[in-house]
Design brief:
The complex is a heterodimer of chains A (405) and B (240). Chain A has 405 residues and is an alpha+beta fold. Helices cover 55% and strands 17% of the residues of chain A. Chain A folds into two domains: 183 residues, no CATH class; 174 residues, no CATH class. Chain A contains 13 helices and ten strands. Chain A is elongated, with a radius of gyration of 33 Å. With 240 residues, chain B is of the alpha/beta class. In chain B, the strands form two sheets. Chain B has a six-stranded mixed β-sheet with strand order 6-7-8-3-9-10, with helices on both faces. In chain B, strands 2-1-4-5 form a four-stranded antiparallel β-sheet, with helices on one face. In chain B, a hairpin with a 2-residue loop joins strand 1 and strand 2. The longest helix of chain B has 18 residues. The chains are: A alpha+beta (405), B alpha/beta (240). Chains A and B meet through helix 1, helix 10, helix 11 and helix 13 of A and helix 2 and helix 3 of B.
């Protein structure tokens, strides 16, 4: 039997029972469509989380005071209440080779009042000029904290975009004076919006020179954290290890259980990716169930078809069809159904993911792998669930099949 | 051309053995028109399955074109059916929702003949079985019984078989259309020299053949020429 004849047979058979074929295909369409849509949502979420973590800064190591178990994930900056990191530690860390920038930070939360009378409670971070390099901060207006601000213990502030809007609305904040904790600060710059990262919103932040923060606002020379930007990605593990040794030595503590912790950005990305991967697998598994149900639908239809067409199979055998001819015909019928369903399912899944992005605002990502996988799965389902009915058809005894009522 | 030597067929269902055929021996030569006749349960269907290579005997030898086919596999039997045997069934067994022409071409599909050639052979077979040309593209389920049986005859002729095997071909037809079908067989036998084996339980139908093999309880009880052979020979095919 030639391929062309098989197609003709399939067309005749499937179009003879349009409603039944259509409903069976629908099962596969929904199965494949939901797998594609769910995987695209999962991968979209994972992509979004990764890119927002990377926007925090590249090749970042964060030294936090207090103890944190490595690998258990991200330590909240709120643990900066521990006072084991001080300004001298920054100079110690500068000895480590492979460090591009070091940014000591001191963080607090204060009430901020604008001259217009607007009031906001926001995070205030004392930083050095290097902060801009380490954390990928871009200035929209004016300038960031400068070396001369540091030397003069200047009472200046740089506003994150959210704070600037909260305090000044549409007005230009540059040159205005704001009151933080009842002290006057002059606004010298405003930053571009970076968007939230899930852990910490850098737009809802006010920056001032570290020394001003420590001497005037918060008191004491403690640091909430030290952010280190490493020259290249490959150097990160080495720098992390070296920094731990140097700092433990300075603090006179055992490097195995130091009174600080160094978390690398890779760890955070890794932990977040693990979460979204699990999430993606979960979604795909739920969608996969409907795919299996669709496959069983195919098998059900094919078994019904074989029973209905028993006499036809008997006739075909009596005029010379071999087992192989019969089984190929029925198998091809099942595979055609799943292929049709697979192709339509991919389109449906694509449309769903576009709609999800449009209306729910969730990022989605259709990957070529997901499409190839879906097509492979639908073909496999056709073969697996079509095999048994096809074999049953092929092994029918022609005499009994011809007599079948 | 075909020869049965002491053919026996035993069906086993659990402990019970049914001897459908006990010991049947006969020979059918090329160009003969033979009727195999017997009441239901006589073993004539079993014999027809064996002659038609749909089944193999439990004992004995069956020679088809001097070749022993009693020990062949399913696929080898399928090959013989495809090349050498044309079946006509009581219930026509046409594919529904399929045109007359495609129904007739079906055996050629399995024989792997090209599409163009198939059409030509099928058209010739339809002419041979006196099927009116203006119905060639009708669906088979729109045809009357007599018309459907002539499509089935055309389908049986299409692979130019050595043997045409008709199993109660008039069983589902009234006398008049039955006669048209029997006339078609007589004409094919007379004009084209086809070997035809007709299985029936009716004396009247059997008398259209040249020779009758009577079978009863799995044994051949009588085998001889028809004395008063019924020849229709009006060749009027306008009956529907």
């Amino acid at each position: 039997m030639k391929a062309q004849d098989i197609f003709q047979e399939i067309y005749t058979a499937l179009s003879a029972n349009k409603a039944r074929s259509g409903l069976t295909v629908l099962g596969i369409v929904i199965g494949i469509g939901s797998v594609i849509a769910m995987v695209s949502i999962g991968q979209g979420a994972s992509g979004q989380i990764q890119s927002s973590i990377e926007s925090l800064g590249s090749n970042l190591l964060i030294v936090s005071p207090g103890f944190s178990q490595q690998g258990s994930g991200f330590v909240s900056q709120g643990r900066g209440s521990a006072q084991t990191l001080i300004n001298d530690d920054v100079d110690t860390l500068r000895q480590v080779a492979g460090i591009a920038y070091i940014s000591p930070e001191r963080q607090g939360r204060y009430q901020i009042i604008s001259p217009v009378g607007n009031n906001t409670n926001s995070t205030v971070i004392g930083v050095s000029p290097e902060y801009a390099e380490v954390r990928n901060v871009l200035v929209e207006n004016g300038s960031f904290i400068t070396e001369s601000n540091m030397r003069s213990v200047g009472r200046v502030a740089v506003l994150g975009s959210t704070v600037a809007t909260d305090l000044f609305g549409d007005q230009d904040p540059i040159g205005k004076t704001i009151r933080i904790n009842k002290l006057n600060f002059k606004v010298v710059g405003a930053l571009q919006s970076k968007g939230g990262t899930g852990f910490f919103n850098s737009d809802d932040t006010v920056f001032m020179p570290l020394i001003t923060m420590q001497k005037i606002l918060a008191g004491g020379d403690y640091l909430s954290s030290i952010a280190i930007s490493v020259e290249t990605k490959d150097l990160m593990p080495e720098v992390q290890q070296e920094a731990t040794l140097v700092l433990a030595d300075k603090h006179n503590v055992d490097p195995q259980s130091p009174d600080f912790s160094i978390v690398s950005q890779a760890d955070i990305v890794g932990a977040a990716t693990q979460v979204t991967d699990t999430f993606t697998i979960l979604l795909a598994a739920i969608a996969g169930i409907s795919l299996i149900v669709g496959g069983i639908g195919i098998m059900n239809m094919m078994l019904t078809t074989v029973t209905e067409r028993t006499r036809e199979i008997g006739l075909r055998k009596s005029i010379g069809a071999k087992k192989k001819d019969i089984s190929i015909q029925f198998l091809a019928e099942a595979v055609t159904l799943t292929f049709l369903g697979g192709a339509m399912g991919i389109i449906l899944g694509w449309i769903i993911s576009i709609l999800v992005t449009q209306f729910a605002g969730i990022a989605t990502q259709i990957s070529v792998q997901a499409i190839i996988l879906a097509f492979g799965v639908s073909a496999t389902i056709g073969i697996v669930f079509g095999y048994y009915p096809a074999r049953r058809a092929a092994s029918l005894n022609p005499i009994e099949a011809l007599r079948y009522e | 051309m075909i020869e049965c030597k002491n053919i026996a067929k035993i069906y086993k269902s659990g402990e019970i053995e049914t001897h459908a055929l006990k010991s049947a021996s006969f020979k059918i030569n090329h160009g003969e028109f033979v009727a195999i006749m017997g009441p239901s349960g006589s073993g004539k269907s079993t014999l027809m399955h064996i002659i038609g290579c749909l089944d193999t005997p439990t004992n004995g030898q069956y020679l088809f074109d001097n070749k022993d086919v009693s020990k062949l596999s399913d696929d080898e039997l399928a090959d013989i059916r495809m090349q050498k045997i044309g079946f006509v069934f009581q219930t026509f067994n046409l594919l529904p929702r399929t045109t007359v022409l495609r129904n007739v071409m079906l055996p050629l599909v399995y024989a792997g003949i090209s599409k163009e050639e198939r059409k030509n052979i099928a058209k010739e077979a339809l002419r041979d079985s006196a099927f009116p040309e203006n119905f060639w593209n009708h669906y088979s389920n729109q045809l009357s019984g007599g018309m459907a049986q002539r499509v089935a005859i055309a389908r049986a002729l299409v692979n130019n078989p050595t043997l045409v095997l008709a199993d109660e071909p008039t069983g589902n037809l009234d006398t008049k259309t039955g006669e048209v079908v029997l006339d078609t067989f007589q004409r094919l036998h007379q004009e084209q020299g086809r070997t035809i084996v007709l299985i029936t339980h009716e004396q009247y139908v059997a008398e259209h053949a040249e020779r009758i093999i009577h079978i009863r309880d799995g044994n051949i009880v009588e085998d001889g020429k028809v004395k008063n052979r019924r020849v229709i020979n009006n060749h009027n095919h306008n009956v529907k």
